[in-house]
User: Which sequence fits this backbone?
């Protein structure tokens, strides 16, 4: 019995060590940040940090779902930008109009993800090629909606989702936690979620085992679009406006990949979790906060983020090389 329990613990640790590493990294960096912040560990400091990290966390969750299937979504940042522009038109007016606008924005993000999935599955195109093409389409739509920055949002709703609950807990963190519980947990424990992991590990074997391969990939891309849309809504809540910012969309896409790898999600697919990607996003965002409290020149921030991005991608590539070499040993 002891051996069985020990084996189960080892298996659990092997599956979760990436998430645990990302969580430990974030806690260490955040503790260093608040211990050196002039205001210390206060609700306002935590709220500000949470609001800044939430956007990337949603996009990182979206990216992780796709990467688990051994794919990649280079349109995630542009879906966020498109939904931000759309929300600046629709999430205004009466409570009924505002609620309808939120639903339309979420459906738009879901539709973007479904489009990616349909093209990849039935068009049999590579995910990287497909999502590069669709990202250009989504950006073009965003430019049609907002050729110049503008628009507005229901300020009461925006304040409610970016303020503190009970004066202590950041509302953005609560929404992020609810999103994990409502979307990620059911997906990961469902037959479709298990099929998504199987597809990422060995798609042919998953197909031969009669797993719903196409449905799993379609669900992953569709949910990725939905999560990016939630990020787009939050961007509108923070900025009170909409902007078709090419640089911002590209940055969120690249940073989401870094967050995914930092969170222990294998770029080869079949390993990792969205929770790890969230911790990776939180850790990645804390870099800028650390530069602030240590009074570094703001011009250094892109350099440090670029270094972290390069290291994160390198870690993922090392994993890919190891897998490839192991396969070659048996040829």
Assistant:
């Amino acid at each position: 019995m002891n051996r069985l329990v020990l084996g189960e613990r080892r298996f659990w640790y092997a599956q979760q060590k990436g998430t645990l590493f990302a969580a430990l990294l974030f806690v260490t960096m955040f503790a260093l940040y608040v211990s050196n912040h002039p205001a210390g560990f206060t609700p306002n400091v935590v709220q500000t940090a949470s609001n800044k990290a939430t956007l990337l966390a949603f996009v990182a969750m979206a990216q992780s779902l796709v990467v688990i299937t051994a794919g990649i979504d280079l349109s995630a940042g542009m879906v966020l930008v498109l939904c931000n522009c759309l929300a600046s038109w629709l999430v205004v007016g009466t409570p009924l109009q505002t609620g309808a606008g939120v639903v339309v924005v979420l459906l738009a993000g879901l539709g973007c993800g479904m489009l990616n999935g349909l093209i990849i599955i039935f068009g049999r195109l590579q995910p990287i090629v497909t999502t590069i093409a669709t990202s250009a389409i989504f950006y073009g739509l965003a430019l049609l909606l907002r050729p110049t920055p503008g628009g507005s949002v229901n300020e009461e709703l925006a304040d409610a989702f970016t303020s503190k609950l009970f004066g202590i807990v950041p509302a953005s963190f609560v929404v992020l936690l609810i999103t994990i519980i409502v979307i990620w947990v059911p997906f990961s424990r469902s037959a479709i979620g298990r099929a998504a992991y199987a597809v990422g590990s060995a798609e042919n074997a998953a197909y031969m085992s009669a797993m719903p391969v196409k449905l799993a990939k379609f669900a992953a891309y569709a949910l990725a679009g939905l999560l990016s849309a939630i990020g787009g809504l939050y961007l509108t809540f923070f900025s009170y406006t909409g902007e078709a910012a090419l640089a911002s969309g590209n940055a969120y896409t690249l940073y989401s990949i870094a967050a995914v790898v930092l969170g222990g999600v294998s770029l080869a697919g079949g390993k990792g979790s969205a929770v790890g990607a969230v911790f990776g996003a939180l850790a990645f965002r804390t870099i800028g906060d650390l530069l602030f409290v240590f009074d570094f020149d703001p011009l250094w921030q892109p350099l440090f983020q670029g270094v972290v991005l390069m290291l994160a991608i390198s870690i993922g590539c090392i994993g890919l090389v190891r897998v490839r070499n192991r396969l070659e040993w048996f040829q």
